[in-house]
Design brief:
This protein is of the alpha/beta class and 177 residues long. It contains 5 helices and 7 strands, in the order ααββαββαββαβ. Helix 1 packs antiparallel against helix 2. The longest helix is centred in the first third of the chain and has 20 residues.
């Protein structure tokens, strides 16, 4: 049953991730999507990693981990698990540490995330489809592979200017060549 669940999860992730990587060559899309799905499945299978709180993106075998976890041990374990997956060339661990929050705070964070996403979409210098936005306790994390440092810098500026944002953390990584 667990293998079936992993296969379904992998298939869903491949279907979801492939369109987001349209700029890459067709072979890389499939390979990177497979690697991302495999990393997600490995995180899911590991009892020490809160897989639902960790974002996984892959570009040419480079895996970017982002999101929020409660402990350094969880962050370190996620990197270790990802590095052990076939097809992973290197791991960039941009996971942030934040304690768990209340339901009310989660609702506020959802609103902040929506406002940040809208602000990024409205900015002509930011390709917002490349950037993941996560918020926890008012701390916004921007993650994902971006085209260049200028895009990352502008995205950080835009996010910092949104109401409800206490701090912005940079989990973006310039796409390797």
């Amino acid at each position: 049953m667990m293998h079936f669940a992993r296969a379904v999860l992998a298939a869903c992730l491949i279907a979801f991730l492939a369109p987001a990587h349209a700029e890459k060559a067709a072979g890389n899309v499939v390979d990177d999507s497979t690697v991302s799905a495999s990393v997600k499945a490995a995180l899911f299978d590991n009892q020490y990693t809160p897989s639902g709180q960790i974002n996984v993106e892959t570009y040419k075998g480079a895996v970017l981990l982002s999101g929020f976890v409660a402990t350094q041990a969880q962050k370190d374990e996620a990197a270790k698990v990802a590095a052990g997956v076939s097809g992973v060339r290197n791991v960039h661990n941009a996971i942030s540490l934040q304690p768990n929050t209340s339901f009310g705070t989660k609702l506020e964070d959802a609103g902040t995330t929506s406002r940040v996403k809208a602000a990024l979409m409205d900015d002509k210098d930011v390709k917002s489809g490349q950037i993941n936005v996560e918020t926890k306790s008012g701390v916004v994390q921007l993650g994902g592979f971006v085209a260049n440092e200028l895009t990352a810098k502008r995205a950080l500026e835009v996010a910092a200017g949104v109401s409800g944002v206490k701090r912005v953390e940079d989990a973006m990584f310039v796409r390797p060549e």
